Amino acid sequence: MNSLRTRVSTRVSTRVSTLDAHRRHRALARAILRLRPEPESWLDVGTGDAHFPETAKILFPYTSFDGVDPTPRVVRARAAERIEEAYAGHLTDPHITTALQSRYDVVTLLRDRSPAPDPEAELRAALTVLRPGGLLLLEGRPDDLRTQLEPHDCEFVTEARRVPDRFPPPQRVIARRKQQP
């Protein structure tokens, strides 16, 4: 009896956490929708199985979603057609960064999914692949992010918004890479 109860409890909690993640992803995508209704290209850093792009495609059906992740899950996500292009490795890899330079209108950098060995280098790489005027969606502490982004010619578009979730959520920050004069 305990075994059955444990399995049912596990299934229910897994289903609830899946619904929470889906709701959180939808909220993140909606935040971009208000600022850029039809981005041409979007890179999801640390995409894993690409559940975020899969959810965001509902709001952005004409946007090309790509993903980068150090695990083979990104290749499976490409095979499942959740993303169009899959890059296996870290965004900080010079081969990846060079190939993707100034290619994306939006870059999602949610550090809680796959923490980078060097967060500063990952942020610089994300800004390298972002087009001028492009949007960078981050989660973290706004004061820390502001300190990291301002030297890179970025302006905060929104900040200090809470993302719905069952646990204490991080702060969502959207920054715009300034246009070059």
In summary, what is this structure?
This protein is an alpha/beta fold and 181 residues long.
What structural keywords apply?
181 residues; alpha/beta; 7-stranded mixed beta sheet
Topology as H/E string?
Answer: HEHEHEHEHEHEE
Strand content: 25-35%
The number of distinct β-strands equals: 7
Radius of gyration: 17 Å
Envelope shape: globular
Relative helix content: 40-55%
User: What number is the mean pLDDT?
Assistant: 82
User: Mind describing the biggest β-sheet?
Assistant: 7 strands, mixed
What separation lies between the terminal Cα atoms? 69 Å
SS-based structural class? alpha/beta
Tally of individual helices: 6
In the predicted model, the low-confidence regions spanning at least 5 consecutive residues are 12-16
Strands of the widest sheet, in order across it, are: 3-2-1-4-5-7-6
Descriptive notes:
By secondary structure, this protein is α/β, with parallel strands linked by helices. Helix content is 41%, strand content 27%. The protein has helices at 2-35, 51-59, 73-79, 94-99, 119-129, 142-149, and strands at 41-45, 64-69, 85-88, 104-109, 130-140, 154-162, 171-177. A 7-stranded mixed β-sheet has the order 3-2-1-4-5-7-6. β2 (64-69), α3 (73-79) and β3 form a beta-alpha-beta unit. The longest helix has 34 residues, at 2-35.
List the helices and strands and how they pair.
Blueprint: H1 2-35, E1 41-45, H2 51-59, E2 64-69, H3 73-79, E3 85-88, H4 94-99, E4 104-109, H5 119-129, E5 130-140, H6 142-149, E6 154-162, E7 171-177
Parallel strand pairs: 1-2, 1-4, 2-3, 4-5
Antiparallel strand pairs: 5-7, 6-7
Helix pairs in contact: 1-2
